[in-house]
Amino acid sequence: MNVFSAADEEKRRGVRRMKITATGLLLFVALVYALAEWASHQGAGPWAGYVAAAAEAGMVGALADWFAVTALFRHPLGLPIPHTAIIPNKKDQLGVSLGEFVGENFLSRDVVRQRLRTVGIGSRLGGWLAEPEHADRVTAELATALRGALAVLRDTDVQAVVGEAITRRADAQEIAPGLGKLLERIVADGGHRRAVDLVVSRAHDWLVFHGDSVMDAVQGGAPGWTPRFVDKRVGERVYKELLRFSAEMRDMPSHPARAALDRFLTDFASDLQSDTETRARVERLKGEVLGRSEVQDLIASVWTAVRSMIVAAAEDERSELRLRVRASLLSLGARMATEPKVQEKVDRWVEGAAVHVVTTYRKEITSLITDTVAGWDAEHTTRKIEAHIGRDLQFIRINGTVVGSLAGLLIYTVARALGA
């Protein structure tokens, strides 16, 4: 507000030209009045009185309107006449009044609803979004905004929040009953048998390739007083039995050990769901696992991986994320453009949001006007307002001169007619 633009300077020049015109008209009627009076004293005839009356009233009208227009911006002739220089003296009060006027007449609930309802935002926005180039533009802007938001976020803060949320969720949720139900379904469906087949097969293969290690381990655990050949025979016997057992268990689906394992898993699944001690042990184990630094680092690294994936998808115009967003926008736009129910829903949502904003923050919005006006320099504000409306105000002076002249002529004519 404290700077005059080129447009402001052009308007000020227009005001000066109109001031010269209005003042010139005042001087003209003054000259006409003087000549008419002179002519009347020289015996020019009745017409001189009519002209003098019109010119005199024109001067009075011009001076009165000059005073009124000037009083808006400054003291006429520099005299501190009361109720003059209204704009510089009442600037802050005008700002308050303007703020109240805007708040009462533009930021009211009914006005906002009525205006938005006549606009038809739902149908217009739908028609705009239904255009592929507009959907592409919105998709690109959303991708830019998403990348910007992710760039602003600090990884350490987000990782801490994610880690805390996952840990808190895991602590609050008991996992033993869920694990028990899952294990029960797996055993009932026979889903564990493949895992047993794999373990038994690997165990048999390991025994085949590491027979010496098994026999050495058995011999090393024998008492010191037994003969070495006895330890060797025992080690060989133990190894052969282990090898036979693993081979039979691998090749016989109905092996008793497999049935025993099924019963064990079934009982364990039941204990996970109903046995208090088993459930407590699982919870303690869960707490120990979550408390390990390696697990916390793994949880924290989830955000880094997710962030990189989202950024890459947002940057790639042909990524699945952007293609899905674009398709969703086109579909939403088509529905908003053709379905009255969707249009009404969007209109209600926009109206509700706008009404909430203007009713909740009306004081803050109007205070922006009053505070801004209060911060303006009074003299500079006066000159700027005069530059914008002063040209039209000069027409008041011109009209006052013309109307005053006509009124004076009419009054003089009526007076002469009544006097005659």
Q: What characterizes the major β-sheet?
A: none
- What fraction strand? under 5%
For the CA atoms, what is the radius of gyration?
48 Å
Average pLDDT across residues? 84
Q: What best-fitting shape do the alpha-carbon axes yield?
A: rod-shaped
What is the distance, rounded to the nearest whole angstrom, between the alpha carbons of the first and last residues?
61 Å
What is the N-to-C order of secondary-structure elements (H for helix, E for strand)? Answer: HHHHHHHHHHHHHHHHHHH
Helix content: over 70%
Ranges where pLDDT stays below 50 over 5 or more residues in a row are none
Structural class: mainly alpha
β-strand number = 0
Q: What is the overall number of helices?
A: 19
Pfam family, one: DUF445
Protein name: DUF445 domain-containing protein
InterPro entries: DUF445 (IPR007383)
Task: Briefly characterize the structure.
This protein is mostly helical and 420 residues long.
Please give a structural write-up.
The chain is mostly helical. Among the domains are: 6-89 and 377-419; 171-291, no CATH class. 85% of the residues lie in helices and 0% in strands. It is built from 19 helices and no strands. The longest helix has 42 residues, at 378-419. It is rod-shaped, with a radius of gyration of 48 Å. Pfam families: DUF445.
